[in-house]
Design goal:
Layout (H helix, E strand, L loop, with lengths): L4 H8 L2 H5 L4 H6 L26 E14 L2 E18 L2 E16 L5 E6 L3 E10 L6 E11 L12 E11 L4 E13 L6 E14 L4 E12 L6 E15 L2 E10 L7 E10 L1
Antiparallel strand pairs: 1-2, 1-13, 2-3, 3-4, 3-5, 5-6, 6-7, 7-8, 8-9, 9-10, 10-11, 11-12, 12-13
């Protein structure tokens, strides 16, 4: 199954323009000095900071997830899942995120099908690095965030949420980096009225396979204490990126649920671009 055509075209049309390299003269005038360090496509967050004057755009072009429960099935499609990162200082950046379009198809045990298309919420985050803002050696950051209820359920949450993400990484050598992302949230209740606590931890191994090719293997555990029923989510993920230039990357990945509460499978692809 594919995303609605109009939504897919609206997002895909500017992708090639964004990934196209800037003119050589412009690149030489003020080239970034730090390694290319996008948040995509891993499940966890990075601790590195994008440089002042070189904002980064990261976008999910296609993201499909399947959940099964009591004989029913839910398919969620996202496109235009966008993150903009802007450096405010050597160790600080601000982030703005938004899911442009989401489409949910629900089929219950009787075969009845319900379809809904919505926009998602807006997120605001501040990443403050505490050690090695270029991501080298041991890198650590604090990232408080808030979500604003711009969208509607089931893509949006219906009310505000907030939390704190703590990403960290440790380079063993030029090829292997160990990663850990811890998070605590005040996340919206399922009914969209109040909030409850949720916790997660994502551990991963990032591999630099060549100058252009990278891969990340991750395990994710999350505990959601919604009043309507607490759940534990366990996921295994594999993702990879290919740098088409010093300032652009395309990526893809997949995640598989390891227990009954978790989504059965997720497949995603997108790109990132540093300006």
């Amino acid at each position: 199954m594919i995303l609605p055509r109009l939504h897919a075209l609206a997002v895909a049309a500017p992708v090639m323009l964004v990934l196209a390299p800037a003119p050589a003269a412009a690149q030489a005038a003020d080239a970034p000095t730090r390694p290319y360090c996008p948040t995509r496509p891993s499940l966890g967050a990075g601790a590195c900071i994008t440089e002042i004057g070189h904002p980064m755009l990261e976008m999910g072009v296609a993201d499909w997830q399947r959940e099964t429960d009591d004989g029913g099935r839910t398919d969620t499609f996202l496109t235009g899942d966008t993150l903009v990162r802007v450096g405010l200082g050597d160790t600080t950046e601000v982030q703005l995120g938004w899911t442009a379009v989401g489409h949910v198809r629900e089929r219950d045990a009787t075969g009845m099908v319900d379809r809904r298309t919505r926009i998602g919420d807006v997120s605001l985050a501040l990443r403050q690095n505490l050690s090695n803002p270029d991501g080298s050696g041991f890198s650590l950051a604090l990232q408080p965030f808030v979500t604003l209820p711009v969208g509607r359920q089931p893509i949006g949450e219906g009310t505000w949420g907030a939390g704190l993400t703590v990403p960290m990484g440790y380079e063993l050598n030029d090829i292997v980096q160990l990663q850990l992302t811890a998070e605590v949230d005040a996340t919206p209740d399922e009914d969209g009225i109040g909030r409850h606590r949720a916790y997660s931890a994502i551990g991963g191994i990032a591999l630099t396979l060549s100058k252009a090719v990278s891969a990340t293997v991750e395990l994710s555990a999350a505990r959601d204490r919604d009043p309507d029923g607490a759940q534990t989510f366990l996921l295994a993920a594999l993702s990879g990126g290919y740098q088409v230039s010093d300032n652009a990357q395309i990526d893809c990945g997949t995640a598989i649920g390891l227990n009954a509460d978790s989504p059965a499978v997720r497949i995603f692809a997108g790109f990132s671009r540093r300006f």
